[in-house]
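Technical note accompanying the year-one report. For the benefit of new consortium partners, we illustrate the data format agreed upon in the data management plan: each record pairs a sequence with a structure-token string. No post-processing was applied to the example shown here.
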Amino acid sequence: MTQPPNGRGTTLARFASLTGMLAPRSVAMLGASADPTRIGGRPVDYMLRQKFAGTLYPVNPRRDEVQGLRAYPNIAALPEVPDVGIVAVAAEIAVQAVQDLATAGVKNVIVLSAGFAEVDDAGAAEQARMVAIAKAAGMRLLGPNCLGLFNRRMNFYPTFTAAFEGGWPIPGRIGIASQSGAYGTHVFAAMRDRGIGTGICVTTGNEADVTIGDAIGWMVEDPETDVIAAYAEGIRESESFIAALSAARAARKPIVMMKVGRSELGGAAAKSHTASIAGDDAVTDAVLAEFGVVRARTTEEMIDIALVASRKIYPVGNTLGVFTVSGGAGVLISDAAEQLGLAMPEMPQATQDRLREIIPFASPRNPVDCTAQVTNIPTAMGDFAEAMVADGGYQSVLVFWSQAGATKGNVERLRKTLGEVRARHPGRLWVLSVLAPREVEALYEQDGLVVIGDPTRATIAIHAMGRYGDAFAARPGIAPPTVPAVPLPAATPSEAEAKRLLGLAGIASAPEQACASVEEAVAAATKFGFPVVMKILSPDIVHKSEIGGVLLGIDSADAVRQGFATLMERGGAVAGARLEGVLVAKQLSGGVECIMGIHRDPVFGPVAMFGLGGIFVEILKDVVFRRCPFGPDVAEEMIRAIKGAPLLLGARGRAPADIAALAEMLSRLSVFAAQAGPTLQGIDLNPVFAMPAGQGAFAVDAVIELGETQA
């Protein structure tokens, strides 16, 4: 595991600083309206109707009273300094409103007003002025252009959402953090309509100050929040986000996240294999996986996972047993489990034989199909259910009873039977797939069971619990290797210089020599032994194969002479290219071609990539990513995670590749990148030859791309 970021104490203080905003004792409402349907009126109306636990001060210079409360002409007139100010005024006076709050010593502000960076450059400038005021005053700012938040526990509703028209939040221990106000409250409303409780929802809008990472981090530290559902369109700031994910894993608090927006990096970044493959979505996906965050594909999936996670059972080494009255449903569930990689081992043969004695036409392998006959034998239901966990040892059990689980007699029997089995095996996860009225579902839920009607959705949610369990149980990994700091040149180096720099970090390349003359080339080839590879050597020609700048299979001194002339001619045809000669290298054979690379993500910094070379990277994009730096254990996990890993592990009689050498190279590359600083834009090692076990791994081609130092 990558260690938590440095400065954890500072970051946790940053999360804690939001308490006055998210759980205040006193609130000033700037732009308070007497009309409860207006943006400035709804928060007042909501808090009055739900009886906000603190003190509410409407601020409106044109009114003495707002919705039955005394109104104040300005912040200075308030009888105390409120914990938080809510700004719901026109954009042109919102910055002054923030200034007034800062002058009064208010430490938190929620800006509902829109018309800032989301609109145009002028709006962005006004937003920057607002942030500068807040920072100078030590004030935390949510928004602008946000839908606010709600904290149901204290009936704090600084929001103008219409979601409450369908009902108020239900008490619960699920928190929602969302960059989108409309979507965040949509998730809340969908949960409420399924009878799921949400204690708090925070929407971050433009994220001028408070980010989604801050909101998640506060919920992680909140003892009344157990599960966090998050929605993001893009991560704007990595420090608080990474700190929040790290803290959540340490606290065993599951995060289910919907990250939308899938884009490829374009322009100059497309010059690099690594960068063009590593669209920002792929990098974010890798970061979420690193910390055990489960990514949801749909709203329904997000809610299912949050609901099951709220039971706080996270199996390590998860296995699924299916207890069903339908063979067809069992096949459907098995298909879903296989696609997810969720193990469904068979029941022990002796147990299968014993269960067939109870119901001869049952199919008790797993899925355990007991057929509807189980309802006609008084003790059979308990016998089958107990066998699933006592003999089968399944960490999770999915009970599929469809409509049969809604009939009065079966409801009573299922509740009693499953309750007794659960009491004997309290650490197991039980999910019911039944079609029943809401009041019947509520009976099962009272027993601590989870009801999800669709069995495929139930399987996905069960699989997610195992992912959480494995992430929470993971031990800290091996420390990254010690690599000497290697100073980078002022400009993008040639291939030979790139390999020399990487060599200082312990990254091996094939034996090679830079040759400025044809005589040097012949001598080098003779020393290495034929055949050799010859390449044009120029810091200005990064992708040599595009101009025919790579010659393979050079097998004689005459061929070297001809190759030298050919390469110099082709290189000379590239306008402005500085030619340093040719690179002569020993031609390797018998290895597996791989690719390693580094891409500097604008949010998360250097990110390493690994995959197989050739068609696997160009067409199939069978690659994995990881934030830098990391140790060889993480590097080996990456190598084994690609779909083409069997080609490295010895599939179909192949000799296994030197995985240890590959992992060491990849981890050293990650440290090199992490130490290089912001001038390093990318590295491509393509191909890297993974030789047979014990024979090492060698970079055959190397590109280091540099850019201007970023502030």
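Partners are asked to follow this layout when depositing records. The domain at 322-431 is CATH 3.40.50.261 (Rossmann fold).
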